[in-house]
Write a structure and sequence with these properties.
The complex is a heterodimer of chains A (about 475) and B (about 100). Chain A is an alpha/beta fold. Chain A has helices at about 10-15, 20-40, 50-65, 105-115, 155-165, 180-185, 220-230, 255, 275-290, 305-320, 340-350, 355-365, 375-395, 420-425, 430-435, 465-470, and strands at about 45, 75-80, 120-125, 170-175, 190-195, 215-220, 260-265, 295-300, 400-405, 440-445, 450-460. A two-stranded antiparallel ribbon of chain B has the order 1-2. Classes of the chains: A alpha/beta (about 475), B mainly alpha (about 100).
């Protein structure tokens, strides 16, 4: 079995034609994980026993009634370890949750399991999804399958590396400021960050609730679309989720390419972007222009202010969201304490890593009395201006093309000494979360070091189908 | 540059205990990041109309965020599972250290 060539559709057809069984498929992946994950370190938890049990169930279903087998039945998946899978650990890559066992299931996981998908394990991430390299995991860093000395990106680095190295067929990640798209770009795979509200966040451990979204990381755009379809929709358990089926576009790549207006923001091609990345992205844009699409330069005027705005809002929301880790209800609890305050201080002082502490403190500062107007309120107003930039641009163009990241995968240890340099890695992706838009990362080339580079395709709200179809142009 | 005293105050507000040398390190790092945030001062936002409820409509135009204020009973099983996670218990209660 050549795992590299498998897609969801191919597996589905092979299972129905009995070319191989689900059990054989799952065993192949488990063997591959045993062989290669010691080098890549994509997984935090393995679900071997349950995976085998579930595989047998899918085989029974196929034997009984092959007409009623959902397309996702038997598909081996990996889930980022900040998304709850009932009965197994959800660590968030943090020491404070290292033994935490999920007592309920995320809506997206529930939907995938109901369709018969098989979970092989939980993947590594920057602690609480705060980072762009997976080096901030409390347990170990994940390596980039294209070059083991380099990072896979982050925070969904384990999920992207696992897909790239064929340790699973597809995975779920979460994206607050680029955490699906940037690792997808670094690992040469497809990553979709859906519109805010398109996928239920129930069971996703909250980092910044106005920015977080769950989305698929896959080898092909078709696979991303299949998983997105399965996990999206209104969920009564997440009041911000939206029933948007009616808003999907009927865009047809074969017929409509010549009417497609693509915006390219001039502010994204200035200082700070690697020359080889710029060249690859420009070439990709030329290619679709040659096929008939119209390219227009647009302005996202406030781009320069995206990173400070994003980090003020994300850290403020994080400081409130992470207040729940108090050593009282669950997780690490430092009992050698004199009083309640001491339990809080010691549990959180010991349980959180440096980056998480940094962000909680930044957020606490931005929200504290006397600074609220200058920082948090200012950032909220900036967010409106940044969103207005996109709305203005989308009056002229249908989609926006940009690099995913200013660089290809960087070396392990290159950015951890200077936290601010790590923040700047989010420059082209964080704006999309601030505006709540959908965006796709699709591989379009390799740089001189043979590292993959991704193109970002940003769409109007709930136009996931359209950006996915446009992305197919590059496959 | 924020002061050492400020770093300690923020850490206390954030309920995070810092060990000796951590205070100095965070002082440097947080100061550098806060300096970077200062660039936002370049932008005049005095005419941007903002209040939280407005922002909610702005981002989620078509969404009914509120449900009816009714009691929805959950199974005892969930309560049991949640209680199992508590580090310190007495009977069916979560036990905490003395406040003072």
């Amino acid at each position: 079995m050549d795992l590299n060539n498998l897609t969801i559709n191919k597996v589905h057809n092979a299972l129905l034609k009995k070319e191989f069984s689900t059990l054989e498929l799952v065993n192949n992946y488990l063997e591959k994980i045993k062989k290669d994950d010691s080098k890549i370190s994509a997984f935090l938890t393995f679900e071997e026993k349950t995976a085998i049990k579930e595989a047998k169930k899918v085989d029974d279903l196929i034997a009984k009634n092959s007409e009623k087998v959902p397309i996702l039945a038997g598909i081996p998946l990996a889930i980022k370890d900040n998304i709850m899978v009932e009965g197994i650990k959800t660590t968030c890559g943090s020491y404070i949750l290292k033994d935490y066992k999920s007592c309920y299931e995320a809506t997206c996981v529930k939907k995938l399991r109901k369709l018969g998908s098989i979970i092989l394990g939980k993947t590594n991430l920057d602690e609480f999804a705060m980072g762009a390299s997976t080096e901030y995991s409390a347990f170990f860093p994940t390596k980039n399958p294209h070059d083991l000395k380099r990072v896979p990106g982050g925070s969904s680095g384990g999920s992207a590396a696992a897909v790239s190295a064929n340790l699973c067929l597809a995975s779920l990640g979460s994206d607050t400021g680029g955490s699906i798209r940037q690792p997808a770009s670094f690992c040469g795979v497809v990553g979709l960050k859906p519109t805010y509200g398109a996928v239920s966040r129930y069971g996703l451990v909250a980092f910044a609730s106005s920015l977080d979204q769950i989305g698929p990381i896959t080898k092909t755009i078709e696979d991303a679309e299949i998983i997105f379809e399965a996990i999206s929709g209104k969920d009564p358990l997440d009041s911000t989720s939206v029933d948007f089926k009616s808003q999907n576009s009927n865009f047809d790549l074969n017929f409509d390419l010549k009417d497609l207006h693509i915006g390219v923001p001039k502010e994204y091609f200035v200082k700070g972007i690697d020359k080889d990345v710029e060249e690859i992205i420009r070439k990709a844009i030329k290619k679709i222009e040659a096929a008939g699409a119209k390219i227009e330069e647009i302005s996202l005027y406030h781009t320069k202010y995206v990173i400070p705005t994003y980090y003020l809002i994300a850290t403020s929301e994080a400081s409130a969201n992470l207040a729940r880790y108090d050593g009282i209800k669950y997780g690490l609890s430092e009992q050698k304490s004199d009083n309640l305050m001491d339990v809080y201080l010691k549990t959180r002082g010991r349980g959180f890593g440096r980056e998480v502490k940094r962000r909680i403190m930044l957020g606490t500062y931005a929200l504290s009395s006397g600074y609220y107007d200058a920082y948090y309120l200012k950032a909220q107003k900036m967010r409106i201006l940044i969103k207005n930039d996109f709305e203005k641009a989308f009056k002229k163009v249908d989609v926006i093309f940009s690099p995913v990241s200013p660089t290809a995968a960087f070396k392990i240890g290159e950015k951890t000494k200077d936290p601010l340099s790590m923040y700047l890695a989010d420059i082209f992706t964080a704006s999309v979360n601030l505006a709540g838009l959908p965006a796709l990362s699709v591989p379009v080339g390799y740089n001189d070091n043979n590292l993959p580079v991704g193109l970002q395709i940003i769409g109007k709200p709930f136009e996931e189908k359209k950006i996915l179809k446009i992305g197919r142009f590059y496959e | 540059m924020i002061s050492e005293k400020e770093v300690k105050h923020i850490a206390l507000l954030a309920r995070v205990e810092l060990k000796g040398e951590e205070v100095i390190k965070f002082q440097k790092e947080l100061s550098a990041i806060l300096d970077f945030f200062e660039t936002l001062k370049e932008v005049d936002t005095s005419k941007v109309d903002y209040d939280f409820h407005l922002l909610k409509d702005y981002f989620l135009k078509s969404v009914e965020l509120m449900r009816e204020d009714i009691f929805e009973p959950k199974s005892q099983e969930i309560a049991k599972k949640l209680m199992e996670l508590a580090p310190q218990k007495e009977g069916n209660y979560i036990k905490i250290k003395a406040v003072f």
